[in-house]
Amino acid sequence: MKIFLTILFIIFFFISLFSQDEQYEIDSLKNLLKKENNDSLKFDITIKLFNKFNEKNDTSISYEYLKKAKNYINIKDKNILIYRYSNISNIYRKLNKFDSIIFYYKKIADIFKEQKKYEKYINYMNWAGYYYTYLGEDDKSVEILLDNLRFSEKNKISKQISRIYMFLAFGMRRTNQEKAKEYFELSLKNEKDTMSSTYFTSLNELGNIYNSKNNFQKAIHYYERSLKIKEILKDGSIVYSYNDLATLYHRFGDLEKAAFYMEKTIPLREKTSSKYEICFGYINLSSVYIEMGKFNKAKIFLDKSLKLAEELKMNTLYKNLYNAFYSFYRKKKDFKNALENFEKTIFYKDSIKKEESVSKIAELDKKYKTEKKEAEIKLLQKDKEKNNAIIQKQKILVFSIIIFLILMIILVFIFFKSKEKQKKANEILFERNAEINQQKEEIQVQAEHLKDANNAITKQKNKIEESHKQIRDSINYASRIQNAIMPNMNLFEDNFSEYFIMFKPKDIVSGDFYWAKKINEYLIFVAADCTGHGIPGAFVSMLGVSLLNEIVRKKEIKKSNQILNELRKEIKISLRQDENEIKDGMDLALCIINTKKNELQFSGANNPLYLFRNNELIEFKGDRQPIGIYRKEKDFTNHVFQLEKNDLLYMFSDGYLDQFGGKRGRKFMRKQFKEVLHKNQNRTMIEQKNILNETFENWKKNREQIDDVLVIGVKI
Questions:
Q1: What are the φ and ψ backbone dihedral angles of 332, each rounded to 5 degrees?
Q2: Partners of 421 in the beta sheet?
Q3: 229-234: long-range contacts (C-beta < 8 A, 24 or more apart)?
Q4: Are 281 and 269 in contact (CB under 8 A)?
Q5: In 486-533, where does DSSP find H-type helix?
Q6: Mean of the pLDDT values across residues 300-321?
Q7: I need a labelling partner for 108 at 20 to 30 A (CA). Which of 254, 269, 304, 616 fits?
Q8: Does residue 289 contact residue 277 with C-beta atoms inside 8 Å?
Q9: Structural domain boundaries of the chain?
Q10: Confidence of residue 59 (pLDDT cuts 50, 70, 90)
Q11: Under a CB-based contact definition with an 8 Å cutoff, are residues 152 and 145 in contact?
């Protein structure tokens, strides 16, 4: 026992000694900063103080020293300026402040361009373009990197070409995976050094692309080639290879191998990576443990990731973390906690979309404050001019007072003369004042009655506003639920070379909906327009999605007309249309593509399908009957035809065609809609969507949108 207490005392002694030494070093640096006059030394001292307080997790003080360091940046010596910008950018890289990293990288690049050190200039601009992808601003990333490519080709900087292709691929992989694949392959083709980071990174990213396409063999081929080079070089980025291999085996159901590779990433991340990447590593490993049923291990890493996420306060981390917690509690059948974490996932998913709007508001606020300051300066100038005018007026006032006193003496004399007349007038006024006071009392009584009535009206108004807020909140929540049941976009990305979905609800919730499902080789997708819009339409749309899922999954119907016949039957049963006069239902277009035979089936309820092939429009008309009760019901028609490469298919609701607008306030109509599609059929699907949206807004202008709008376009 005595030995244990002695050891414990020694441990506490050394901890105390270390703490005192560290505090002594901080105090010494603070004193040195006060005495020092040289800006270069001040900069180095403030950076050291930032690192000391940052290591102690004292964020507020560390950021104060970072702010002070920025005051000592500016200097005429460009090489020292590069050194200071690099120090600041390295700090922001540790803090995951990507917008600040980009800012300082551009500053460094500008200096190198001015010095005509073009290779270094291109290197920093490449990284600036890459970090835009972390902000989700892929368009800015691609714009910078294409400028770099043109600059490098013009100035014959061949060493940077392969690297630019690699960064371009990073900028395009979210929006155009095929184009990203092409640029990664160009990067490999142009890179002469097969042991370089550019070479093994491009190999690894090609593995990621084939992984997303479910091509297991090709993904493994590229991952293992990249891993082999990293193992030879003992490169720190080997952690990403382990992570990607784990993700691949996870997707294809080999949980043991997934866990093996994911466990290898953890010590490497904890040693070398940022807190952001460590947190993602914990989340990914916990997800594998959850599927393996190893709940105790999963909970350890979930708790670790929660602690890091609360430090970083990044919405992307919270979204993935709460989704993992949702899976954890759902697997454990703890449905109460599962629901709470699912709601948090939805909340942070929405918050990510809002961040762009918050940033724009901050920019406008800054602009407003600048304008306000300028207005204050102008106001001070005007005050100065006013003061000069006041001095001049005071001189005039002195002379005026003298004249005024003379006039007052004359007035006093006149006053005493008129005093007797005033006395008689006062008696008359007294009588009139008595009458006025009586009228005033009557008015006060009436005012009290009005005040009571006003209080009652105010209370009623508050109740109405509270009810309106509750209804609005409920509708917003219903909108999130409706968005959550819409199909995953991966289904369209994996099966079509290009596509777009233009979805513009009239109200917060929509009566239009789109739906897709793949059963074996059959890809089924729908564009539907339910009776009405807003809340009534949304109820019918959710009923339609539910019934379509049940018909396709349980009854395994693979003919388009049979699906519509069955859907009509279920709608009539669900809405009891045989028992009452409810005529609610929906118009829709439904396609089934046999992905093996490249054969398409189409059936429509009042809605058509447009096919553009070789600059010609082929229209497949739907049957003139809705999904719902109808006086002349018949089986729906099944149109079957062979698809060809580059065929364009369009399905839509009537909201676009029926919108009032233009100079004469008329409907847009089907003919004009066909002309827009025909004119732009050779453009990309994303460009077509933008043109359709711009045409719609220009047509509508300030008029109210009359209905929900849905247009779906796909390219075979």
A1: -85, 0
A2: none
A3: 229/194, 229/195, 229/199, 229/200, 229/203, 230/200, 232/195, 233/195, 233/200
A4: yes
A5: 490-495
A6: 82
A7: 269
A8: no
A9: 30-352, 486-715
A10: low
A11: no
> What is the full DSSP assignment across 666-703?
EE--HHHHHHHHHHTTTS-HHHHHHHHHHHHHHHHTTS
Task: Write the CB contacts of 236 (distance below 8 Å, at least 6 apart in sequence).
Answer: 268, 272
Q: In degrees rounded to 5, what are phi and psi of residue 527? A: -120, 120
Distance of CA 460 to the CA centre of its chain: 39
Per residue in 426-441, pLDDT (tens digit) is: 667 666 766 776 777 7
Class of CATH domain 30-352: mainly alpha
pLDDT of residue 27: 78
What was the pLDDT predicted at 389?
65
Contact 591, 602 (CB under 8 A): yes
Bridge partners (DSSP) listed for residue 616: 613
Mean pLDDT of 8-25: 52
Q: Residue 522: beta bridge partners?
A: 519, 594
Residues 6+ apart with CB under 8 A from 686: 175, 498, 500
Give backbone dihedrals phi and psi of 137, rounded to 5 degrees, phi first. -100, 65
From 201, 198, 249, select the one nearest 226 (Cα to Cα).
201
Helix (H/G/I), strand (E/B), else coil: 650: strand
**CA atoms in the 13 A half-sphere facing the CB of 507:** 16
Distance CA 556, CA 271 (A): 52
Helices of type H across 234-332: 238-251, 255-272, 275-292, 295-312, 315-331
Q: Which helix (H) or strand (E) holds 642?
A: strand 639-642
Amino acid at 210: Y
